Amino acid sequence: MKTLHPGAIEAAMVNADFLKASFVEPVAVPEAELSGPGRFFNRELSWLAFNRRVLEEATNPRVPLLERVRFLSISATNLDEFYTVRVAGLRELARAGNTTPAADGRSPVEQLALIDGDARRLMTTQQAVWAGLRRELEAHRISLLTRAKLTAGDRRMLESHFMERVFPVLSPLAVDPAHPFPFIPNAGFALALQMERRGDGRKLLALLPIPGQIARLVELPSGRDGRRRFLPLEEVLLEHLGDLFPGYALKGHCAFRVLRDSDLEVEEEAEDLVREFETALKRRRRGEVIRLKITADAPSALREVIVRELHVRPDEVIELKGMIGIADVKELVLDTRPDLLWPSFTPRVPERVQDHDGDMFAAIRQKDMLLHHPYETFDMVIRFLQQAARDPDVVAIKQTLYRTSRESPIVAALCEAAEAGKSVTALVELKARFDEAANILQSRRLERAGAHVVYGFINYKTHAKISTVVRREGERLVTYTHFGTGNYHPITARIYTDLSLFTCDAALGRDATRIFNYVSGYATPPKLENLAISPLTLKSRLLELIGAEADHARAGRPAEIWGKANALIDPDVIDAFYRASEAGVRIHLVIRGIHVLGGLDAA
């Protein structure tokens, strides 16, 4: 049997220019290997490999310096989310004694051991990358200082800054029998302090939580050469301990940061889904600690107290030489240094929209319109809904909302339409991870405006990005539909590459309406004329298409598959790719994130 070698699959998956890349030659693989768990990569290790690719962009010399700093920050944020959700879930399974193997044959305990080693190496690499970036930032007149580098003028400025902007929000906390160890929230960052009273030598153990509501990096006055100078907030606090603990001297300190289990558990039969999610969000903030990062040189007595009081095991403690909370380096991405950022880009406005004086409905009536964001402006999506809200001939709007911005112009347009008396239905996905609270606020706003708000399914996330506008034209109703691959989020749409299709094709409009009826009323559509949707028909359609290419190859006809996806984890689809490759189909996949296809050489 011959199939695509996993190393070649990996190379194909990371080669973005797949239209020009050549196909690799298949190699023989024993039948036994194609039927066992070894044909899969581990999902979690694949995610770590994806995040390592993100981190590699922070070392890519073709990427502008501050954009590399941004990539480093993204890799740290990604890793935090991975721990609070994926690792937390595996940890819960392991503690419950669950030994059910993943697709690659590894139990939760085995996966956790591999994740721990790989993630620790990744965090060590992050610190090394940060050290290199700091040197480059220094060479470009951006400095991150320590207290030892402060001048008398810096200290005067910091005294004012501290008292006006930091001191009012601080809560120094003693730890003794009368003051139990305080709760540190998810992603909470704190200083642990060993103090001694100058008058009588009395010892004091205290915690100083570092508030996340203020900037982590405090900017100091610029140097004579225009150098931008910053001091970490924890250094500012250590500089002003005398204001927080008068009469005490510092004898030892360390910094630590915790991550807690943030996976949401929602009761399937909850009477009020929004209230259930609000309760679950509160539980998330108080979840068990799953990772503790602490400075490597922490005094042993402080370290012992922190580990004991947070109830973490030794394998959940990570000692770091370097910056804790490295995601905060994003504050160094300065708009005032365009020479160190990607060149500014002005997206294109489609000529056809301009030809119709900005009238989206006239442009769509002329012909379907396919846009490629961010090269073509996402403003057309916003304009489509704003015009619908103000058009007296529009009678109804239906909209899915997975992620939106806090001040979303799309939500504003929907509210305007509802207040104008149009029928507005918004499907708000509450399970958009880490955007749940924002989506609850948007749903309340829409309801106050008079829109119908629905929340889809308990067991599924509604990822479909669809908007329909029903407009009265003469004696008939015409449905204008927008299908998108991204989110209705005007900020991320300036960065992410996505597609938008605008159409007034009647069959596509009927399909979109059937999908809305399905998610709002559980009315399973008996058929769809053009679309395939998950969980009803999308997977079967993919398997059918892959199988058809295999049949072409067996019949000696040209057979190729080109695929692009965010992730590839479904075993049935992966096995179909293996069978197609065996039949002689040439397969080229571009997978952005997790993929578990091709684990044959992972042992």
Report strand %: 15-25%
| Shape field | globular
Instruction: Characterize the largest beta sheet: strand count, sense, and whether it forms a barrel.
Output: 7 strands, mixed
Spatial order of the strands forming the largest sheet: 12-18-17-16-13-14-15
Can you characterise this structure?
The protein has three domains: 2-35 and 566-591, no CATH class; 130-340, Polyphosphate kinase middle domain (polyphosphate kinase like, 2-Layer Sandwich); 351-521, Endonuclease, Chain A (2-Layer Sandwich). The chain is built from 18 helices and 20 strands. The protein has helices spanning 6-14, 31-35, 43-56, 65-95, 108-139, 152-166, 233-239, 241-244, 273-285, 300-310, 351-355, 360-366, 379-390, 409-419, 436-449, 506-521, 538-554, 571-583; strands spanning 2-3, 27-28, 142-144, 173-174, 189-197, 203-210, 217-220, 228-232, 248-260, 289-295, 317-320, 369-373, 394-401, 423-428, 452-454, 465-473, 476-484, 498-503, 560-565, 586-591. The strands form five sheets. A seven-stranded mixed sheet has the order 12-18-17-16-13-14-15, with helices on both faces. The radius of gyration is 28 Å and the shape is globular. The model is unreliable at 1-15 (pLDDT under 50).
